[in-house]
Design goal:
The protein is an alpha/beta fold and 323 residues long. It folds into two domains: 88 residues, 2-Layer Sandwich (Ribosomal Protein S8, Chain: A, domain 1); 216 residues, P-loop containing nucleotide triphosphate hydrolases (Rossmann fold), CATH 3.40.50.300. The chain contains eleven helices and eleven strands. The termini are far apart.
Length: 323
């Protein structure tokens, strides 16, 4: 490889190096594809061959993955992809102790956007997280809520969504109230069960320490010592958004997530999420994180799909503005 550098990474634990390399060297192969370098493993040593800048990024990615192993956490392919993404962004090469630990998961940033999100969740009492599906907006917010609940920092977790899109039209659905709303809140339940044992989630739901409810159920309440997550907030009206934001009581935190490209409100109705972003711009204590297709951590194709739609929408807007 012309102009290549040769770096050597030596690790102290041969057993952990075997996990780092992965079955049939699959983790190294993935890093080679992501960072355009050549990696060789022998014993407790991994050599890196490639252009100097890329070789250094590969070294940083390997060290980050090895650190995860030393802390007792397994490596999944998503972690390998994440280490490569973070290594490629110099501003997030060292994210410090921004990981979130729950009883079942150890969540770390897999993209620069997620690293910024973890920082915002640590620094601000109210955080707006914007961007496409698959970027971890809701998942990481639930993880943070669970971690603070386990630490005793908050007493309750409130998870809410506008049910049946923005209109919250529940009456026509079959079943009792729980059966009517559960399908729209299922993603929040899924995240909870990914963080905590099922019997413990059931116990906290029964005691009210975790509440999963449609947005309409928050009206008239003051939520103290709570971690509140308002999901799919692009489908709130300005009145609903103001109502939700003013539920925050003493020692409470709130995360508002949404995708402004997926608004399901009636035509001509302004999104409460957009209205809130404009109204609260510059207000102290409010954080804002914007994700892009580069932060999508699902299947690689999802990122390309999101990017294709963004480009199409931008082209349509440009054509519309030109008329």
């Amino acid at each position: 490889m012309s102009g290549a550098a040769l770096l050597t990474c030596e690790f102290s634990d041969n057993g952990l190096v075997r996990q780092l390399v992965g079955p049939l060297n699959e983790n190294l192969t993935r890093l080679e594809q992501r960072l355009d370098v050549v990696l060789h493993s022998r014993g407790n040593t991994i050599t890196i061959e490639g252009p100097p800048a890329r070789a250094l990024k590969a070294e940083a990615a390997l060290k980050q993955l090895y650190k995860r192993l030393t802390e007792g956490h397994a490596i999944e392919m998503g972690d390998v992809d994440g280490s490569a993404r973070l290594a490629q962004d110099s501003s997030t090469s060292d994210i410090g102790d921004l990981s979130i630990r729950t009883r079942k998961r150890h969540i770390t940033a897999r993209t620069p956007g997620q690293a910024g999100y973890l920082q915002a969740l640590q620094d601000f009492e109210l955080v707006f997280a914007l961007g496409p599906a698959g970027t971890g907006k809701t998942y990481m917010a639930v993880a943070k809520a669970v971690a603070l609940k386990l630490a005793g920092t908050v007493d309750r977790i409130i998870l809410s969504r506008p049910a049946v899109e923005a209109g919250e039209r529940l009456g026509f659905l079959p079943g009792d109230m729980r059966e009517k709303i559960d399908p729209y809140l299922r993603p929040l339940y899924d995240a909870l069960y990914d963080m905590l044992p099922g019997d413990y989630v059931a116990k906290l739901l029964l005691s009210g320490e975790i509440e999963v409810a449609p947005l309409a159920f928050m009206r008239g309440r003051t939520l103290t010592s709570c971690f509140i997550i308002l999901d799919e907030a692009q489908n709130t009206t300005p009145v609903q958004m103001k109502m939700a934001l003013t539920r925050m009581g003493e020692n409470s935190r709130m995360v508002v997530t949404g995708d402004l490209s997926q608004v399901d409100l009636p035509r001509g109705t302004k999104s409460g999420l957009q209205d809130a972003l404009e109204t609260l711009d510059g207000v102290t204590g409010v954080g804002r994180v914007s994700f892009t297709h580069r932060d999508v951590v699902r299947h690689d194709l999802v990122a390309r799909i999101v990017d294709a739609y963004d480009k199409r929408d931008a082209a349509r807007k440009k054509a519309s503005d030109a008329e």
